[in-house]
Amino acid sequence: MPTFEITPVQAADIAAYIASIQPVAHGQALVEANCSPCHAIGKTGESPHPEAPPFRTLSERYPIEALEEAFAEGIETGHPDMPSFTAEPGQIADILAYLWSIQDK
Predict the structure, then answer these.
(1) Which CATH number describes the domain made up of 9-102?
(2) Per-domain residue ranges for the chain?
(3) pLDDT band with cut points at 50, 70 and 90 for residue 79
(4) Which pTM value belongs to this model?
(5) SS3 readout for the chain
(6) Within 13 Å and on the Cβ side, how many CA atoms surround 72?
C-alpha cells in the first residue's frame, strides 16, 4: 500500500469531508427504504406514483429547511396513497442533507 505524506491540516480536511458525506448517504438510504416506491428520489427520473413530486424538485414547492418541522410532527397529505410518518431528529437531519444534495439548481 502506498504511503502518503499529508499535513495535519490536510488530514483534518479529509476527516471533515468524510464526516460531511455520511449524513447524505444515510439520508439517501432512508428515502430509498421509505419513499422510493412513490417518489423519484434521485437527480433524474420520474416518480413511480404520478402524483408524488420528485424529491429533486421539492425546493420549488417548499423551503427544504421548513420540512424539518413537518418530519418531526409527522407528514400527512390529502391523498390516501401516502402514509403518515414521523422521523427522529438524527434521521431528519440526514434526510434534509440528502434532499439538499439533489435539488435542481
Answers:
(1) 1.10.760.10
(2) 9-102
(3) low
(4) 0.75
(5) CCCCCCCHHHHHHHHHHHHHHHHHHHHHHHHHHHCCCCCCCCCCCCCCCCCCCCHHHHHHHCCHHHHHHHHHHCECCCCCCCCCECCCHHHHHHHHHHHHHHCCC
(6) 9
